């Protein structure tokens, strides 16, 4: 019996040892931040992975990557395309393929083995990527479409019916693999034998088609398993055919819908075939989609449905031969950012009869459309009108849509139950008015469909303050609603443009919520391609609206978002690719607008949409008032000079750094001379102006305290504890106050419920974020109820300052964890799934005790600031931190003990000062 106890004890000891020091593993393999992507047209794509390990302080010391041309070779550990060998490096987030030249339309397979200070992993589960079409010649065929109007089009109204194209093909051999490449402009849906290919909607991504065109790639092997097949494509208008053509000097129009497609087939006998678009395809405009456009909606006549049009044997005798049409002009590029898709379905919360119609309330402002079930006589018209809010009498409030009709019409074919949703439009709405519906309108016959770019939600935040939590929720809905392959300003009115000025702080905060790196990388490319030869950058990109107003704050977002992506993802290519264009723009602005006194004289918008002092002062008025401000433009240029000086070092252009820094130093002197002489601190400078001077480091060191006092004075005394910032100032306000040591004042602003505040929006029924602080009373042309620009840096503050999750270097490889303790806030729990892995910060404060749970991903380190009386007042899982060999004590600062942690999970308990 005694020996059995010994053996059992030995087994338990061995089990615990294995558990404590489990072998690390590599997973979450991604190519260009995508999982097993199709259509990567980069010759040296970025490879990344995450390390999973139970032990603490796990650091990668080396990696070994194998890239092979087949799964069989990879299984034999043969990297015939690239064998990196054991490479000494801690890099796990941006290793660039460095093997043989890749060929178009080939699939490659890869895996990785990591070596750490706690042992080596096994080979990872294999991953793959398909190489796209790398060269223009790879397309080798023509664009097809119809370049002109048909009887089915309404030329006067600017409405085009959808274009349908089809082709029957024969497959005489067994298919090993088949890949479809398609560019369908403005929007497309691809079918094979009546089955839609993919789950994307509103594809492809928006671009300025004279600059670049995105193609999508699909594996269609399983759909080509017989002899006869039919290929079908429906083309919608999107932004290609612009509905509003009355202002060609402002709005770009690219022409009539068109497409180019090819399916590349490899047969089991090794032979290959390419099926492509040519004039043997046939097309019609006489289908059920009578009109479709982004702003006005879709009209669908089910009586005109082309039954089985994308199946073999359909009689297309009345269809016309497709025409060869001119190509768009832009370069062909694989779309690396994901397409949009239906990401969530919402059930209505109520239906209310109103004047012979019905008002459906979905309980949430969002963007997308409604899917409807209906049964009734043929020819019955059901009209769906969309709105964000209601008038006092319960009817739809639609004045803020401007010229957008935001209306869908479905005409029944009659007979059985019909189910319908639009294809080539979307709306921003909470409420839908239903008119003409036959029978009883019931909740289960309508579904709201939330549509945005397919991306993972990677952040969560909750706290003891319910208002903070609800603002976070509203922000999520607003951000998601405005991801439409570009970061649009709003989803409801006839605008929906990617204004650069809306996003400098917001994009940063959004990155804590969404895996949006590819999305914003694509947008930076839109900005770069919109640059004029002389260096000018527009206010809107892609430049669907021709706005080149030469201001600092809007185009300056180009640099700020690039800096954010580099900080959050560690991809230096972002800076390398855009550095020449950024430098060109900076030189352009300086040459044109820096006067003899060193001031940047040109600004267009000022602190856009700053709140009126009172609701009454802003009632019925438009905030659409430009107040150019040379202080703002000069402050921004100084800030951007410092930023591009860093970029020059990162990108191998260090010879430029001295010039940028000298220019910045001179501008700081000129700025203070003009705007901040000793009496200027108590002059008429606005809150925004003072925030910029403080956050950008423009005031002299000896004057910072005085300026900080002035900022506090404006908020507490002149604003009665409220902000007075517009779009510009709100991008920096929360971080500035916190850096000043006044996180308490930032918290007050974040939790106000009276005007102007985020809480005021919620108190007045907002379920997203308004465009204006007084969005409930302003003129309808400027009161979008689903905008993100006034989020500013609020979400950055949530995650970095309240939760204490901040990247210090190289995409969270070094982390700073320094939560602010504020009276009235008792606990915060936040997670952020960074490129390195999940980071968790969960803290609670009760009287003089502070409990903090932390999780840090493998291959990272964190500097952690624990509020405590001192080192001896902190324990980790019941043990003094000084007794932990895996916790490095750095020092003490302002009531906090600073420690350095490696990866792992930690539970701290401290006594507060």
From TrEMBL:
Hydrolase as UniProt keyword: yes
Catalytic reactions of this protein: Hydrolysis of terminal non-reducing alpha-L-rhamnose residues in alpha-L-rhamnosides
Domain Bacterial alpha-L-rhamnosidase N-terminal: start-end pairs: 173-343
Domain Alpha-L-rhamnosidase C-terminal: 804-877
Signal peptide span: 1-22
Keywords linked to the UniProt accession: Hydrolase, Signal
Alpha-L-rhamnosidase six-hairpin glycosidase domain location: 457-802
GO molecular function: hydrolase activity
E.C. no: 3.2.1.40
Residues annotated as domain Alpha-L-rhamnosidase concanavalin-like: 353-452
Principal EC category: hydrolase
Protein name per its UniProtKB record: alpha-L-rhamnosidase
Organism: Sphingobacterium chuzhouense
